Amino acid sequence: MAEAMVLFLRFCFQLIALPVYLLSLLGAWEPFCKKIFFPFFMEMLTAGYNKKTAEQKRELFRNLPEFANSSGELRLLEIGTGSGANFQFYPPGCQVICTDPNPNFHSSLSKSMAQNQHLQFKRVLVASAEDLSKVADSSLDVVVSTLVLCSVQSVEGVLKEVLRILKPGGAFYFLEHEAAAHSSWDYFWQQVYFPTWKLIFDGCCLTRDFRNDLERAKFSEVNLRHIRVPLHWTPIQSHIIGYAVK
Ligand SMILES: C[S@@+](CC[C@H](N)C(=O)[O-])C[C@H]1O[C@@H](n2cnc3c(N)ncnc32)[C@H](O)[C@@H]1O
């Protein structure tokens, strides 16, 4: 019965979003989404999202300096940097490499860089997190991912790359929205919105579960917790937050 309701409501939302589906069929939506809509949407969302998660982000990134190398440098790479939502939470002097497969965040990213002069920006790479071949093995102290694993092609492939580029003892920090408890109404609505949300928001999957991926990857230590971010009336309230040590 619940499954039939999901399918029916999903169909209703697909009807409402019919123009987007038609544009996608014509091959026009994806380029528009990547070039204009999604970078603009993320720039709008970031201030509000950071306000709601400021306390959690501050707490998450508090121990970043503990992972600095013996010269006191903290070499950090962010996957799916987008418009640079996390820069304000990194400690002064932190050396940052930004990576994202979508180069169209350029203007909002440049703005964030200019506003965060306490950091040293080293490189901006156009690269997906599944293939960071331009980054040497064991060359980083920290890798960060926020709201990215929902959109990647292979979570397992990303975690393998993260482990490759981290130094032994380096840390992977994450804050990701995830599938709600399967018995909840939140999960019901996530299933309803899933295909339309994925199409509109550049491949963002609502029902991914990252705990198993993180625990299966070969980290020596995984610290995580599930939290709820009060993004009312959205299907992305359930989050996973923490860090894993190589
Ligand atoms: C929702 S935005 C989050 C941006 C930023 N991390 C933040 O917290 O605001 C998702 C980002 O992931 C990027 N992305 C999508 N697929 C990716 C992949 N395979 N590897 C790395 N980043 C990816 C998108 O281009 C986009 O910048």
TrEMBL record:
It holds the Pfam family Methyltransf_11. Keywords: Membrane, Transmembrane, Transmembrane helix. SUPFAM superfamilies: S-adenosyl-L-methionine-dependent methyltransferases. This is Methyltransferase type 11 domain-containing protein. GO terms for molecular function: S-adenosylmethionine-dependent methyltransferase activity. Residues 77-174 form the Methyltransferase type domain. InterPro entries: Methyltransf_11 (IPR013216), SAM-dependent_MTases_sf (IPR029063), Thiol_S-MT (IPR052356). The chain crosses the membrane at residues 7-29. It comes from Sphenodon punctatus (Tuatara). It comes from the Eukaryota.
